[in-house]
Amino acid sequence: MPLKSIASIISGHSKRSDSAPAITYPDGTMTWGELDRKSNQRARMLASMGVGQDDLVAVMLPNGTEFHEAVLGIWKAGATPCILPAKLPGREATDIFTLAAPAALIGEASFPFDGPTIPRAAALDQFSDEPVKDAGAVSWKAVASGGSSGRPKIIVDTMPAFINTDAAPYTALGLSDDVTMLNPGPLYHNFPFLFTSMALMGGSQVVGMERFDAEELLRLVECHKINFLPLVPTMMQRIWALPEDIRTSYDISSLQRVWHMAAPCPQWVKRAWIEWLGPEKIFEAYGGTEGGGGTAITGVEWLAKPGSVGKVAPGTLRILREDGTPADIGEIGEVHFPPAGAAKFKYIGAEKNTDASGGYWIGDLGHVDEDGYLFLADRRTDLIIRGGANIYPAEVEAVLEEHPQVSTSAVIGLPDDDLGQRVHAIVHLREGEALDLAAIVTHVAEVLAKYKWPASYELSKAPLRDDAGKVRRSALKMERQAWLESGREFEIRPS
Predict the structure, then answer these.
(1) Which residues, 6+ apart, have CB-to-CB distance to 5 below 8 Å?
(2) How far is residue 40's CA from residue 198's CA, in Å, rounded to a whole number?
(3) Residues 378-384: contacts with CB under 8 Å, at least 24 apart
(4) What are the structural domains, with CATH classification, of the chain?
(5) Overall pTM surpassing 0.70 (yes/no)
(6) DSSP state, residue 326
(7) What pLDDT shows up at residue 180?
(8) Cα distances (Å, whole numbers) of residue 373 to 70, 257, 340
């Protein structure tokens, strides 16, 4: 099958279903025809501002119909959407914009940006809604991420904005024009953006939430007869934590596929959902934002291989020891992806972790059993995964150590019943300084997005880094987990 541009594929659905609903959010419903015509106007507006082929365009919009309209307009302009949270502290946003150098911004900036800006709900009437020239960028999306070096980076997916929707993974997901998908996640994260985009490419109706709410999700499933539901494990836990009489009062029998990914899922949660909905409806995927490799597993398979994230297809990944040699069956090593995957993304603001073969890794540890199933031992040893969102300790540490009270710091993830992990900051003060936690908390809030804020602090009497500037986060984490189990008090909670 010939490749088609993403923009033309989505526009093509309007020719078949002009008045049918394409997107429904709390801000309203947009038909396929409206989505097509408004995105044409959007593309012309971007062109009038000087946006050209393969430019990056920053999108800082909340969940809603306008987000999808804006992204489709960017694709139609031949540019690449760089998705960002609608609200970013000025310093973090400035760092990201310095790296991305976007040709334009769609949204509202609370920081200096001298490029063209299209505010929310901008008037499009002066631009024609007639079809635009078919276009597509060399990279179909860009996602911002906190960098492991303490600075942000941008992951650019170098897959062109031209695809074959009859090929995997599109057909494997089952997203077609008779499917209605519910998106409960923030669209600036890769996982919700990926699934909603693929749904629209497949002609599926997308129903979205402005923000996640466990009972509201169940109500929407019943109201819209949702077939397809992507979740992160934190959402699964919150839904399961609802009183049973509330959780079972909604008719969710329309659900056919529930996918979860983006963070480790506790086995008890996975088993509860399998028993609730049936193993044939539960699916899990493993992979990084970088793409290029990964696994998937059905609920039926998982019951036979509890804890696995799927069977490894030939040539998709391998487990290597620290010296680069292949690990034995059952031996824990680092998960490496093949060279072909490394060619599918690039970083702005960081270097790829690549091996001698040209393959790459993202820091995950695991092993493969005798039947070829992958089991993860840890998710990026230092990385904190909070409710499916990645938080790099070095980024938070860099902000803490900018404060005049703080000499050195170490940021680790500690267990959290709701979000999986919470951010815990250990700080060593400069000589002669007394702790003013409120001042430190205020400083962090001015620089970092809220989900990266430490939930608890601890005061260390000794420096936290050695003479080489290294911090032993794993040892610190293990020690504090033992303290938690013994009931030792060591944390200070912000008021």
Answers:
(1) 75, 134, 135, 136, 161, 162
(2) 20
(3) 379/263, 379/264, 381/473, 381/474, 382/148, 382/473, 382/474, 383/148, 383/413, 384/411, 384/412, 384/413, 384/421, 384/423
(4) 4-283 (3.40.50.12780), 284-378 (2.30.38.10), 384-486 (3.30.300.30)
(5) yes
(6) B
(7) 97
(8) 40, 22, 21
Choose the weakest-confidence range: 148-152, 285-289, 455-459. Answer: 148-152
The rounded distance, in Å, linking the Cα atoms of 459 and 84 is 33
Indicate whether 379 pLDDT > 90: no
| DSSP, residue by residue, 165-234 | TTSTTHHHHT--TT-EEEE-S-TTSHHHHHHHHHHHHTT-EEEE-SS--HHHHHHHHHHHT--EEEE-HH
d(CA 106, CA 194): 19
For residue range 413-425, list pLDDT tens digits in order. 999 989 999 999 9
d(CA 203, CA 208): 15
Q: What is the largest CA-CA distance in the chain?
A: 72
Band (377; pLDDT cuts 50, 70, 90):
confident
Structure tokens at 491: 């944390």
pLDDT digit string, tens, across residues 307-337: 999 999 888 899 999 888 999 999 988 899 8
CA–CA gap between residue 422 and residue 415 (Å, rounded): 6
Report yes or no: 456 and 491 within 8 Å, Cβ to Cβ. yes
pLDDT of residue 425: 98
State both tokens at 50: 């000087």
> Cα–Cα distance between 55 and 78 in angstroms, integer?
8
Q: Which residues contact 285 (CB under 8 A, 6 or more apart)?
A: 259, 260, 261, 294, 295, 296, 309, 310
Residue with tokens 């093949």, as numbered in its chain: 338
Task: Kindly write down the DSSP assignment for every residue of 351-420, as one continuous string.
Answer: ---B-TTS-EEEEEEEEE-TTSEEEEEESSTT-EEETTEEE-HHHHHHHHTTSTTEEEEEEEEEEETTTE
Pairing verdict, β 333-337 and 360-368: antiparallel
Note the pLDDT of residue 341: 67
Write the DSSP symbol of residue 294.
Answer: -
φ/ψ of residue 387, rounded to 5 = 60, 30
Residue 102 has pLDDT above 90, yes or no: yes
